[in-house]
Structure formats: C-alpha cells, structure tokens
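Example S7 (structure tokens).
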C-alpha cells in the first residue's frame, strides 16, 4: 500500500492510511515489527519536509495514534499482563525523536540536496556493505571458531578494547543465523534474493521504496547478528516471517521484473520471457517442496490432547497438582480449570525443594505430583497412584536447517499423591 501511494503522492492518501493501519496491525500481531520503526519512521520523517510527500506521510503517521491509544489502554485494563514491557515505550519515543530530528534537518538545511548529489556513491557504499555483511555472516562467521589462533587473538583484542560481549556474540551460537536463512530459502534461493536486494534502493524514486528497503535491511542485519534466541525456536522464525521474509520476497519479485524488462527491451518473444521469469519462481518453490510437504503432513505432539484429558480425569476437583515439567501445568490450569503449578525448569534440586516445602505445608486439599523423575520414589510420604506414559513425536530441531524428520517426545510420567499424617 505504501508503494502504491508513492506512485501518486499528490493524489489520494487512502493507500498511505491503509499502509499505516497494516503496520499497526502487524505490530499488534508481532511486536518484533517494532524493529522496523527505528529506520522506517526517520526516513519518512526526512521526506515529510517535501511538500509533495507531506500529506501522505502525515496520514501514515497519524494512523499510529490508535495503536498507541490501544497499547496504553491495554496497560491500564490489564496491568498484570504486559507482553511488550517497558522497552516498547523507549523504542517508540526514540523513533519519534529521530523522525522529528530527520524532519528538521530536511526542512531547515540543505541536506536533501547534498544527499541527492552524492546518491550514487552513498548507494555504492551501502551495496558494498551489504555484500560484505552477507559474505561474513554466510561464509566467515560460521567457520571462525575452527580457527583457534584467530579466535584467541580476536577474544584478546575484544576484551582489551572493552568489547568482549560483541566478540562473544560474534563467536556464539548466533553465528549460524545466516545459515538459518539459507535453510529457509535454500542456497540457490537465498543467492537470488541477496543479488536482488540492492535493487530495492537503487530503484528508489521516493520515500516508500527507500524506507521499506533500508528498514528491512536494518532488521535483517539485527537478526543475523543476534536473533535473541535459539534459531530453531518457533518464536525466532516469527521474527523473520513478518519482517524479513516479505522484504526478501519483494527483492526477488523486483529482480524478476528487471529480467522481464531487460528482455522486453531486447525484443524477446513473450513466450521466452514467460519461461525466463517463471523458471526462478519454479526453482524457489520447487526446492522448498520437500520441506513444505513434510511440515504440512506432520503434526507436532500427536496424541497429547487425549493424554492431557486422561490425566485431567484422574485429578480430583479439589486437588492441587504440581509438576516439574515446564509447560505442562498451564494446560491443566487454563483448559481444565485445575489448581496446577509447575516449576520454571526441570532440575533435581528444585524438585527436592518442592517436595520438602509441600510436605511441610500440605494445606487442606489433596496434593498430587506429576513427574518423570525417579527422585520421588526415595522420598517419604509420596504414594504412586498410576503410571501415565506419554508417547508422542515432534519435528527434529536443527540450528540452520528446515526439519525433514521427526523425533520421539514424551516420557514415563507417574502420578503421585502426598499421604497426609492423621
């Protein structure tokens, strides 16, 4: 919508309004979209000084006010449920501050003229930096830890300069992040997209393409530097899907259009042009077909729902259930309305501490324990009620590959009850 508006910025602003509302909806769906703001809004603020673009950009930015109001209302209505945290306020204020600064610079200085004068060298530097970044992340960074002497030297230099945390991040698990993108796109697809990305800013003739292209680039750099979690986790994939993947697809589509126009200028036949632009699309889709087919045909944790139902039937209405399996207490509490509690992580010492505290303060209701640990068998006061094994499966996890196999999950669960002294 933003690109459509930029084709006729002096006309109606409906597309700009729709783009702003879409950004707000994306933000409410995935707060990782916030990373776009840090680059997107300042660039739009810079172009807002131009009378041609001011109306549409203002409409775009005004649509963010309902988002801010909804976010504030949410904090007041549900103060104990704050998935966004205080970081959001700081990032929003910083983005708005940078946008205002960019607007003032463009409005009261000759910076726009100077940037236009140096457009080619600036874009050349950005393009070169992009290819260097991809090369380091794709080929150098994953292999660097195997260079023992280099690692020791880099670590020593980093800590001497006070940048030890940056060195640790460079050498840590996140070094595989570009390989994760390779696993999603396949090496051929990622190569195609990487080559097409510079077209997003070389072809920019207005704020929309420039803002979209550079903000997507910034998010890509952040996520390939530090994705903020293990790469195989689904919430990391969510960070790539709403922000980076549409941007990469846009670059690929733009590259296909360039091929079509190049062939059109050279008077190729339409059939040949159609084959030429269809081939990369078929390759991109076809190379992902095995992974797509596997993920579409395999459900994770099959049979788990019926297992939870069978366990819930064994828990008396007034009983209190404890478990040392993270994530297993919440379904009993919120779906089956049981008084269920879980340990944050599975650890023998934590379980022993729980058993001691429950034994000392049992309360008035029956106390049950669901666990796979054998520690309970050696503890006094706990009676085994039933063995309730869970046999299921889930997709295998790889740090830089799309899963194509399953692995067994579950465990030999046992349900215990605390025998209270009369």
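Recovered sequence:
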């Amino acid at each position: 919508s933003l690109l459509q508006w930029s084709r006729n910025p002096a006309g109606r602003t409906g597309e700009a309004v729709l783009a702003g509302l879409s950004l707000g909806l994306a933000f409410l769906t995935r707060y990782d979209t916030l990373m776009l703001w840090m680059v997107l809004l300042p660039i739009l603020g810079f172009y807002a000084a131009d009378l041609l673009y001011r109306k549409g950009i203002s409409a775009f930015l005004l649509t963010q006010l309902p988002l801010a109001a909804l976010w504030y209302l949410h904090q007041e209505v549900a103060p104990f449920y704050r998935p966004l945290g205080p970081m959001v306020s700081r990032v929003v204020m910083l983005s708005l501050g940078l946008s205002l600064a960019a607007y003032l610079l463009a409005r009261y200085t000759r910076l726009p003229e100077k940037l236009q004068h140096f457009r080619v060298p600036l874009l050349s530097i950005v393009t070169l930096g992009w290819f260097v970044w991809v090369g380091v992340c794709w080929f150098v960074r994953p292999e660097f830890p195997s260079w023992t002497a280099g690692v020791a030297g880099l670590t020593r230099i980093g800590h001497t300069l006070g940048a030890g945390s940056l060195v640790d991040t460079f050498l840590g698990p996140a070094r595989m992040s570009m390989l994760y993108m390779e696993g999603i796109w396949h090496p051929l697809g990622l190569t195609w997209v990487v080559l097409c990305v510079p077209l997003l800013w070389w072809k920019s003739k207005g704020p929309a393409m420039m803002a979209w292209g550079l903000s997507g680039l910034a998010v890509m750099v952040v996520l390939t530097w530090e994705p903020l979690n293990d790469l195989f986790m689904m919430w990391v994939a969510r960070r790539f899907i709403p922000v980076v993947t549409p941007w990469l697809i846009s670059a690929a589509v733009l590259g296909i259009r360039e091929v079509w126009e190049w062939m059109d200028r050279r008077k190729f036949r339409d059939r040949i042009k159609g084959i030429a632009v269809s081939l990369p699309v078929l390759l991109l889709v076809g190379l992902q077909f095995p992974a797509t087919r596997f993920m579409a045909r395999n459900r994770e944790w099959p049979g788990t729902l019926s297992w939870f139902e069978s366990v819930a039937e064994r828990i008396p209405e007034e009983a209190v259930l404890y478990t040392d399996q993270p994530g297993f207490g919440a379904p009993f509490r919120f779906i089956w309305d049981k008084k269920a509690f879980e340990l944050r992580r599975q650890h023998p010492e934590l379980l022993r501490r729980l058993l001691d505290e429950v034994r000392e303060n049992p309360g008035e209701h029956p106390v049950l324990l669901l666990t796979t640990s054998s520690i309970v068998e050696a503890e006094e006061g706990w009676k085994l009620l039933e063995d309730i094994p869970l046999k299921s499966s889930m997709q295998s996890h790889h740090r830089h590959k799309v899963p194509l196999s399953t692995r067994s999950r579950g465990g030999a669960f046992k349900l215990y009850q605390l025998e209270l002294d009369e």
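Notes on this example. The two ends are 72 Å apart (CA to CA).
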